[in-house]
Write a structure and sequence with these properties.
This protein is mainly alpha-helical and 109 residues long. The protein contains five helices and two strands; from the N terminus they run H-H-E-E-H-H-H. The chain folds into two domains: 59 residues, no CATH class; 37 residues, no CATH class.
Length: 109
């Protein structure tokens, strides 16, 4: 059991998670601390409500993640790959590029 003196002397990261007096994480790449509740917000001002995991498991900004999923060029390339029955790695050149470009132009209108 910790005494009040111990709690006051230790940083908020080491004992009991984030507290109201806890400062934002000043270092880059510390979104994991906010995600686990050991800090209140990142240096950029993101709290846990504004963070999410991507498909690789990395913690990223929720707003940026949603905006990236709405990218029309990526959606056009996916549709072109599906039409051409391409699986695996394929550079976006030649026929694939032309088909993706046509889908992208249709999406813009």
């Amino acid at each position: 059991m910790y005494t009040m003196a111990d709690l006051k002397s230790e940083s908020c990261d080491t004992i009991g998670g984030a507290s109201k007096n806890c400062k934002p994480c000043e270092k880059k790449g510390k979104k994991i601390k906010v995600w686990r509740g050991r800090a209140l917000e990142t240096a950029g001002g993101l709290d846990k409500k504004k963070l999410t995991r991507n498909k690789r498991g990395k913690i990223v900004s929720l707003k940026k993640s949603r905006n990236a999923k709405k990218n029309t060029w990526i959606q056009a390339v996916q549709m072109a790959r599906k039409d051409m029955k391409i699986k695996g790695f394929q550079p976006v050149t030649g026929e694939l590029y032309e088909k993706a470009k046509s889908y992208h132009d249709k999406m813009k209108k």
